[in-house]
Sequence to fold (363 residues):
Amino acid sequence: MARRCCLLLWLLLGACSVSGNWSAAQETEPHIRVIVNLVQLNVAVTDNKGNYVTGLTPHDFVISEDGIPQTVATFAEGNEPTRRLIDNAGAEGKPDSAPAIPASHSNDPALGSPETLGSLVAGANVFVLFDTSNYMYRGFVFAQDAISDFVRSLERADQLAFYSYSRNLSRAATLTTDRGKVLRAVRTTVAGDDAALYNCLLLTVRDAAQYTGRKVIVVFSNGPDNSSVVPPEDVAELAQSTGIAIYMISTQQAKLEPISTTVFERMTAATGGKAYFAKTWRDERRAFASIRDDLAHLYSLSYYPQPNPNMGWRTITVKLTPERAKKFHLRTRSGYRPLPSHASKEPLAMEASPVPAGEMPTR
Fold:
């Protein structure tokens, strides 16, 4: 009996030891979750007369980040479907010979899903931010009409959100394809209180940053900011880092205030947008029409950044090849600040997912 008990005890101890070793092996086996940054650029190309240039190819663009040459990974012109030029492995600078990834590779997690990449340029997510402060008592109805016409004119593929601001931000219509909902939100706005433009614009940028694809904020402002605590430089940097173009339409009243004029022009230029100063309600309509045309003619390019030790601000330079550089002008964002890389020890295999640089993955 004593010998039998000893044998049973020995077997139990051995089983525990094997189980412990197996668990330890599982726990110590590293699993690295890799977030692959995909930097998206929306580039406007115009000639010397300000006309949009069409028909360019990926080979016409030369991109560098902190002086490091980059290889275009995806490309599209206007509202055309996205072409995928290289896979994640091709980010070392060796583009695939085929213009798209073969179907047999479409589910490879290391390459990213076609749906994710396709969503980068599938229309635009447009956030309209309307000044309803006490600056807007004059011309309020004309501004509502101009915004309403802009909403109606956009392609059905676009999603829109309508926000208004005075001292606080009102999310009157969140991102939707329902034009009727957005138009009703425009018509129900009322004017009053001080203007906290930069506070509310920062909140709008944060909302827009949650989405992939083209992200655009169109601001209609009737005057300078008189109650924000957020500096405009912080707003501009966050918009640049999250790939959001800011367009600003302001009345002549804002242009009479030199500081506001300078801020509006610098912020829009840094993010790849434009600033407009409208003297009349007809100028307001023309400005909205210009923004609509800009969205329809943008080139969408993206790239996987080459190894870069700089974890701070990265400067992006986009040029055309020498034979075209003298003829045309480019407008895009000037840089971004990358998110820290993520790594964790978890069971299962290595993963990689494409995420626009400076953005949190969409859940």
User: Anything to note?
Assistant: The mean pLDDT is 77.
